[in-house]
Amino acid sequence: MYGINNLDNERKIGIMTLESIRIYMYTIIEEVMTMMYALKRSTRKSGHSVITTLPPDVMSKLELVSGDNVEFVIKDNVVELRKAAEKKEAVSQDFLKMAEEVLEEYDQAFRGLVDR
Length: 116
Known about the structure:
The protein is an alpha+beta fold. It has helices at residues 4-13, 18-35, 56-61, 93-105, 107-115; strands at residues 44-46, 49-51, 70-75, 78-83. It has 2 domains: 4-35, no CATH class; 42-116, Pemi-like Protein 1, Chain: D (Ribbon).
């Protein structure tokens, strides 16, 4: 049987027959098809929302646990589901401390500006 090693050898020396190209393409397609598969879920009404479930394969792939936030990225007719980034504090505690120190230090100057 004509194997992948033969294809690699032909590719290395730059001579590939039409048959070997065909076999090579089928090999690539077969590999891609094993990496990609579709999972179907139904939707249902819950209050004013429409909900669905996430299969264990999706939960595992996205490293999700129950209660995690997800985000939907919509582009044209494609929707991508991904784990939402962790929310960081809008303003760090260090910044707030520094701002408070500045306000205390220049309190009289700021009051003088307001009184003008």
